[in-house]
Design brief:
Blueprint lengths: L2 H14 L2 H8 L3 H15 L4 E3 L4 E3 L1 H24 L8 E7 L1 H18 L3 E7 L13 E5 L9 E7 L1 E5 L1 H7 L14 E3 L8 E5 L2 E5 L5 E3 L2 H9 L5 E4 H9 L4 E3 L8 E7 L7 H15 L14
Parallel strand pairs: 3-4, 3-5, 8-11
Antiparallel strand pairs: 1-2, 5-14, 6-14, 7-12, 7-13, 9-10
Helix pairs in contact: 1-2, 1-3, 1-4, 2-3, 5-9
Length: about 300
């Protein structure tokens, strides 16, 4: 049995969670499946499947190897389709990541739309407010906000956002609209602890950059909660412009001190792959890039769409 067939056998056993089930999926005998997995483990010199009388599970090495097998076999199928002169069909599992609120507001709707037109793709979305190591966690596509460090992953800029100070119009009518950031030092502030980008409030004035560390009376664990408190009229908060774009459009939130805003932050899509990018990654990145670039909420004030 060649190596590619061994990989297919291992994937079938993993999917069926049994040797007998894997054999049924492939249409071969259970002893052939057992011998193939044993030969594969012997050649690799490591245990891929932990067996017991009641269960079968992947070891840590097995989990990594199975993910590599899926990728390799998918690339093989795509190469064969191209060689035969056919078009490559996006298929397989796609793992994507983004900051929590960005993912909920912008990425999840795009994933749903993408899946509607690509029935052979399945997506796992990891929404976390931390920088994920794409190699270690098996991420295909990531959305990153802010400047990118030097790296090997291809990147596309798809938008610009900015830190904004905001409050409800009713609150501002009551206390007055600030004309300078110094007026916020003793004002009621609600702050989210979820974003390190917003823990130090930076501004730009006629004499250059300046800022201060706010002393909030109200701290919450999510950006959405901070926005909700501000919408209720309790005080000011600082978030990223895309997070309140819809509330601003509805008149529920008002931006203040826009003349003092710091430079906009870039939004990038980065993805795995060097010369050869799988069809699922290429089509998903192209779809999201075009959609994000057309969204006014991901465009800094006074700027043209990113191209």
């Amino acid at each position: 049995m060649d190596r590619f067939q061994e990989m297919r056998v291992l994937l079938a056993v993993t999917e069926a969670e049994s040797f007998a089930g894997g054999a049924k999926l492939l249409g071969i005998s259970p002893p052939s499946v057992t011998r193939a997995v044993a030969a594969l483990e012997a050649r690799l010199g490591t245990l891929l499947l932990a067996r017991s009388t009641r269960s079968l599970r992947l070891t840590e090495a097995g989990q990594r190897y199975v993910e590599d097998c899926r990728r390799i076999l998918l690339e093989l199928e795509e190469a064969e389709e191209l060689a035969a002169g056919g078009s490559v069909r996006p298929r397989g599992r796609l793992t994507v990541t983004a900051p929590v609120m960005f993912g909920e507001l912008f990425l999840i709707p795009r994933i749903a739309q993408y899946l509607d037109t690509h029935p052979d793709v399945e997506v796992n979305a990891l929404l976390v407010d931390r920088v994920v190591n794409m190699m270690e966690e098996g991420i295909d596509v990531a959305v990153r906000i802010g400047s990118l460090p030097e790296g090997d992953h291809p990147a596309l800029q798809v938008g610009q956002i900015r830190p904004v100070v905001c409050a409800s119009p009713a609150f501002l009518d009551r206390v007055g609209r600030p004309r300078h950031p110094d007026e916020l030092r003793d004002a009621p502030i609600v702050m989210s602890s979820a974003s390190t980008l917003l823990s130090h409030w930076q501004f730009v004035g006629a004499d250059g950059p300046f800022g201060f560390m706010p002393q909030p009376r109200f701290t919450v664990s999510s950006n959405q909660a901070a926005i909700s408190v501000a919408r209720l009229g309790w005080g000011y908060t600082r978030v990223l412009s895309y997070q309140v774009a819809a509330a601003v459009a509805r008149g529920e939130i008002e931006l203040v001190l826009e003349a003092f805003e710091p430079p906009a932050l870039p939004v990038h899509i980065i993805h795995q792959g060097g010369r050869q990018v799988s069809a699922k990654v290429r089509t998903f990145v192209d779809y999201c890039a075009a959609s994000f670039r057309a969204d006014p909420a991901l465009r800094a004030a006074g700027t043209a769409p990113v191209s």
